[in-house]
Specification:
The chain is α/β, with parallel strands linked by helices and 314 residues long. It has one domain: Ribokinase (UDP-N-acetylmuramoyl-L-alanine:D-glutamate ligase), CATH 3.40.1190.20. 34% of the residues lie in helices and 23% in strands. It contains nine helices and 14 strands. The strands form two sheets. Strands 1, 4, 5, 6, 9, 10, 11, 12, 13 and 14 form a ten-stranded mixed sheet that branches. Strands 3-2-7-8 form a four-stranded mixed sheet. The radius of gyration is 18 Å and the shape is globular. It starts with a strand and ends with a helix.
Length: 314
């Protein structure tokens, strides 16, 4: 029987400026709403690959919430743990790319429906039936989300379930009260650690990648998967190292690529694939994700990943 994956965290819509520049101090043409939220993108990618998957979250009883519920359910994600809050607003992020590729955001997350997440009978039922927990660092930076995420980690790992952890953090929020302790607590139980580039140094004293990886393995992390965007990716364990070369694609929107990468890696890992195979497909999922406008639009099916790999390796 297939193992079921749970994640806990923010669900929101993303609305994007179609022009490049710094922020929203003047009127801009916009496109969206797109379903979004790092945990939602991750779990949607798992659903697209046919892995049993569920998310615990909270949305408003509005169109932005319905956009997300409809997409996740269509991609076979169990949405029974998403509470629909009457009279509250679904989270949002307005995004504008700068000319250097960095982004300016206007968020409404902490004060949206998702920021008031608490345990429900439905979310506790999912915690009881899932075998793997995925933690996004963003879910640990907001008090309500963090409490539920940590409870899910405790319950699933106590039963012998496995844990993957994507820090997905900007350095400026690391000083949030209690965040560092929560991150260390999750890392101590992590089977698969999925940092992007420099994030690996947020958790070690090392100043080079090899030393950082060794420190993490010595702390008990079973596998470290370093995402490098258009530079490919690497997998490390006590058995050695595997690398996946970059896949050349036309980049339209990089938002969500790391989340799709993580979803694909966990999907193949849980199905018993070798680290090399899981890394190869994850790398392809990250590449596929950037070819579509919108954070969740590039989540791929197995057929789409096979086609991309065939083309890249042919």
């Amino acid at each position: 029987m297939s193992k079921m994956v749970l994640t806990v965290g923010e669900i929101l819509v993303e609305i994007m400026a179609t022009t490049k520049g710094d922020g929203f101090l003047e009127a801009q043409p916009l496109i969206g709403p797109f379903p979004s939220g790092a945990p939602a993108i991750f779990i949607d990618q798992l659903g697209r690959l046919g892995t049993p998957a569920a998310i615990v979250s909270r949305v408003g009883d509005d169109d932005f919430g319905r956009v997300n519920l409809t997409r996740l359910a269509a991609d076979r994600v169990d949405v029974s743990g998403i509470e629909v809050a009457k009279g509250e607003a679904t989270g949002s992020a307005f995004v504008r790319y700068r000319t250097d590729g960095s982004r300016a955001f206007v968020y409404n997350i902490a004060h949206s429906a998702t920021g008031k997440l608490s345990l429900t009978p439905e979310s506790e039922a999912l915690m009881a039936q899932c075998d793997h927990m995925h933690v996004m660092g963003t879910a640990l930076s907001a008090p309500g989300l963090a409490e539920v995420a940590r409870e899910a980690v405790e319950r699933i790992t106590a039963r012998g379930g496995t844990l993957s952890f994507d820090p997905n953090l900007r350095p400026e929020i690391l000083d949030s009260p209690g965040l560092r302790e929560a991150l260390d607590e999750v890392l101590a139980r992590t089977d698969i650690f999925l940092p992007s580039g420099e994030e690996i140094y947020l958790f070690t004293q090392a100043d080079d990648e090899d030393a950082a990886v060794q420190e993490l393995l010595d702390r008990g992390v079973r596998e470290v998967v370093v995402k490098r965007g258009n530079q490919g990716a690497s997998h490390f364990s006590r058995s050695g190292r595997a690398d996946a070369a970059p896949i050349s694609v036309d980049e339209v929107d990089p938002t969500g690529a790391g989340d799709c990468f993580g979803g694909a890696f966990v999907s193949f890992w849980l199905a018993g694939a070798s680290p090399e195979t899981a890394l190869r497909y994850a790398n392809a999922a990250g590449a596929h994700a950037v070819t579509k406008m919108g954070p969740m639009e590039g989540a791929a099916t197995r057929d789409q990943l096979d086609a991309l790999l065939s083309q890249a390796e042919g």
